[in-house]
Amino acid sequence: MTTATELPAELADATRDDASLRRFLHGLPGVDQVGVEQRSAALATRSIKKQSKLWAIDTAIGMVDLTTLEGADTRGRVRSLCAKARRPDPERPDVPQVAAVCVYPDLVETAAEALRGSRIHIASVATAFPSGRSSRAVKIADTEFAVQAGATEVDMVIDRGAFLSGRYGEVYDEIVAVRRACGPAHLKVILETGELVTYDNVRRASWLALLAGGDVIKTSTGKVSPAATLPVTHVMLQAVRDWHTITGEHRGVKAAGGIRATKDAIRYLVAVHEVAGPRWLTPELFRFGASSLLNDLLMQRRTQLEGHYSGPNYVTVD
Amino acid sequence: MTTWNYAPAPENRDIAKLRPSYQMFVDGRFVDGEGEPLKTINPATEEVLAEVSTAAESDVDTAVQAARRAYERTWSKMPGAERAKYLFRIARMVQERARELAVLESLDNGKPIRESRDVDIPLVAAHFFHHAGWADKLAYAGYGPDPRPLGVAGQVIPWNFPLLMAAWKIAPALACGNTVVLKPAETTPLTALVLAEIIQQADLPPGVVNILPGAGDVGSTLVNHPLVNKVAFTGSTEVGKLIQRSLAGTGKKVTLELGGKAANVVFDDAPLDQAVEGIVNGIFFNQGHVCCAGSRVLVQESIVEELQEKLQYRVATLRVGDPLDKNTDLGAINSKQQLEKIVELTDSGDEEGAQRWTSPCPLPDKGFFFAPTVFSGVSQAMRIAREEIFGPVLSVLTFRTPDEALAKANNTPYGLSAGVWTEKGSRILWMAQRLQAGVVWANTFNRFDPTAPFGGYKESGFGREGGRAGLEAYLDV
Amino acid sequence: MSDSRLTVSKTYKLYIGGAFPRSESGRSYPVNDSRGRFLANAAQASRKDARDAVAAARKVAPKWSSATAYNRGQVLFRIAEMLEGRHEQFVAEVAAAQGMQPKRAQAEVDAAIDRWVWYAGWTDKIATVLGAANPVAGPYFSFTVPEPTGVVAVLAPQGSSLLGLVSVVAPVICTGNTVVVVAAQDRPLPAVTLAEVLATSDLPGGVVNLLTGRTAELAPWLAAHADVNAIDLTGAPPAVTTDLERAAAGTVKRVLRAPAAEPDWSRPPDLRRLRAFLESKTVWHPMGV
Q: CA-CA to C261 of 20 to 30 Å: which in A151, A183, B316, C222?
């Protein structure tokens, strides 16, 4: 197993070998399900209005990884999505651009071309997304392919089978290898929390991904239900906050899948604000993996500014 | 760095339908009392909310007589199934007027609207609903085939959960077939009087419930009235002892729910983040104006620094301010008097050598507010560890072994509640078995339900409220 | 103008999964009042309808049994509210179905409403009354809690078309079970109207499923059904009750036997019908540091 030499002693020790990693992960405090769900629900009652709501909507737009991950994706579809990423609301040039576009590796080239000159990131899924069920070689090749085509961010999946059977060292090694294959690209590590099921597992997987060098820990592939939830994201935000307390480093969180309404997006921002801290309220450290959320944000933005409810004919379908 | 200030999100005051004056509720009608009217204020702004008629001695007598008549002629003869339907009506109407009651409660008491809306008022409806269902099932409650009521109940309640305390008293009393004369606290009479409106609209026979606003003297007259058969008091241990003494030899049945100095015990294997939430909820819920507040945290010494750091971080995020703002976490202290008491006790903490940490949160410039405060390095001998502060002030003490935690937790004349935080189930049960407290919360805190009996050991009082056990207080058994 | 107005007659259908379908068999049968005059056609349910009803009851069972007792109590109370709102309609239906004088029909409907209220108040108390902390001889905390058995098939009494029906259905769902009930064969119409009340009372679809038709035809299929946990034989035709008990034995169903004669439903109930459809779970956990 490779060790990260820059980590503080207590964390470096954890990655020394399989047994140490297991002891560290199993030694993390447990998460009480009822307690975390209650706290999460209480935060969701925050009432965000007027100027702070408008700020939240614009911030959320700037945090969107505009995503298309369908078997039926075509170059045309991706180009259309990229046009929307650049200019989400054709009638309102003051609307911020999204943070990134997220596609399958074979469409990275098309996206890179379409986004040339913009500051929008090109994120690609990789490592046999969404299942993660293939050989190490295939996963590395998948990653390298995406990066060579122009991806500036890679969203990998962890091997859930290995994790759930306690082979933490394997999961760790794989993340480290993918990190290396990313080169200059940022690595997001998808935990697939819906398959991990317990909050204790989510906490352990979060720490494992952070120890292995993930820049961002991500909830879900969006292909499995449940995907992102507020309590799961809450636990992940705690992990990055605690990581910062020990190492001084800022790592990010991405909530993906099932977030469709502005109301929910704002609840996520409240969680980011109050669990991790205001420093995380930036696209560098928090993202939404979403497709239909953007249109709802745009409609709500119009409602706030125009003073009446909007409708689907006033946002574009791409 | 980004800052995100949540814009003010005020609940609409008008929903409370505040009136300039309120009257007593006696024998089914709203009437003026002979006592000097009191002015009830909004502790967040110090403005006068309304003038409230109070009872003089003669009014107490009138009310008790009305309750007696209603008991003898109507209520004790009514089948339980019919009594039940009155209580169901009241429950439903509380639900219908929930928002109005929540706003009024926050105005009069100072607690955040989020709490009155999400905790107080829903529990009020639930208590009436639950007890409605007992009215025709007393034969199954384990008190014999036909347990009888006691007669007229004289009830005195505190200011910390005004409407909820009224529900805790009125619902079981009526379910068991008693009639009631209730005195709400001097500083928080309004929601009880709106409950009286609901009771009137529910067509409850006149005299079954009577509400007499006033101060301590009214309460004293009430509990000592010869025609009152049963006394129920929730309030300070000091006053509880006075009441118990004055009832000696009278044969009146009495239940007391008094003060507390609960220990919240955190073991080294606790789910730490949830324990922090539980500690915060335990002492800062309702500004710490809770008899069962977890005001002493007993932390296993090996984790005290880590816990304290997380605790301070979390407490610093508590928003103190306008109770009507939906984002406020901590509202106003209920009265100037209470604020002075809190200040006096926290000053003693400094004098006796504890280390004080106060949240840097901004406080409003008028109204009665106190910033959340945590004392560390506290020992059992200090006043802040022994006396009930009834405010947002936490004392942190340490222990090394479970036996020591137990000894310290039980080392108090109080015994209302306790908390235990550990992942180990067997330890939870071992501690619960040995803690001298009427309510033990494990890996949670401040959970209330009408089906779960609540009450204290030792000087925290005797008698239980809620559930099957709570019926005993209102039956002749 | 109004005295020559033709009324729009109601079509009486089954109630399955929260919807009102006709029988998949397409059959119906005439229902007459106590004097033999035609009232309406009722759907004649088939074994396939019974099968679908069981599936619907099973599907919603986890949701209903895991709802808080408080929530179930409020739903049952809402049923009483809705029934009260239709008081006149039910008095007319019961009077017609059973040939009762209006005053007696009124008393029946009043009692039926009050019975829902009685059971609404039991949801959050039955665990206290039937459960226990067991003082075992060892350092263990042991407790016993009642739990709903699951899906219950109920043969409603043949005589009392509303009060009897309510008396056998309410206790079953009160504790978190879901139910497939076969209405009184010759007096099914108040049952269908009750289903309309259920459908407007926040009761999740599938918690109560109502079949109308020939009891002797449907009962054997329910008694033998492997996904039915218990059966209430109150309304079973006397000639077949033993056969039904035998069929139930095939999957060790809990059986509430048919009474010798139809009870007087106006008498206050006891806990028997609540207990009949409850399991009992005992849990042990050590107490130690």
A: C222
CB-based burial label for B319 (10 Å; 0-12, 13-18, 19+) = middle
**What is the distance of C-alpha B330 from the center of its chain?**
16
| B254 contact partners, CB below 8 Å, separation of at least 6 | B230, B231, B232, B233, B243, B244, B247, B463
Task: Say how many C-beta atoms besides its own lie within 10 A of residue C270's C-beta.
Answer: 10
C-alpha distance from A261 to closest chain B C-alpha (Å): 20
Band of residue A3 on the pLDDT scale cut at 50, 70, 90:
very low
The structural domains of chain A, ordered by start, are 9-305 (3.20.20.70)
Indicate if B188 and B300 belong to the same structural domain.
Answer: no
Cα B359 from Cα B345, distance rounded (Å): 17
The four Cα atoms A240, A245, A246, A249 give a dihedral, to 10 degrees, of 60
How does pLDDT run across A66-120, given as a tens digit for each residue? 999 999 999 999 999 999 999 999 999 999 999 999 999 999 999 999 999 999 9
Q: CB-based burial of residue C240 (10 Å sphere; 0-12 exposed, 13-18 middle, 19+ buried)?
A: middle
* Lookup: tokens for A289: 């993996």
Helix (H) or strand (E) holding C268: none
d(CA A24, CA A14): 6
- Residue B251 and residue B269 in one domain: no
The amino acid occupying position B301 is: E
Within this chain, do residues B245 and B268 fall inside the same structural domain, yes or no? no
Angle between helices C102-120 and C87-98 (to 10 degrees): 120
User: What are residue A154's DSSP bridge partners?
Assistant: A124, A187
Between the alpha carbon of residue A207 and those of residues A25, A28, A192, B18, B55, the distances in Å are 7, 9, 14, 53, 64
The interface pTM score, or ipTM, of the predicted complex is 0.94
> Nearest-CA distance from B155 to chain A in Å?
34
**Residue in B327, B360, B323 with CA at minimum distance from that of residue B188:** B323
Kindly report, residue by residue over B316-342, the tens digit of the pLDDT: 999 999 999 999 999 999 999 999 999
Which candidate from A35, A52, A238 shows the least CB-CB separation from B4? A52
DSSP output for B436-467: --SEEEES--S---TTS-B--SGGGEE--BSH
Q: By the CB < 8 Å criterion, does A166 face chain B?
A: no
| Cα→Cα distances C73→B449, B468, C123, C203, Å | 14, 17, 5, 11
Inter-chain touch B9–A29, beta carbons under 8 Å: no
Q: What is the CATH number of the domain that holds B207?
A: 3.40.605.10
Q: Could you tell me the CATH number of the domain that includes residue B342?
A: 3.40.309.10
B270, B274, B327 member nearest A36 (Cβ): B274
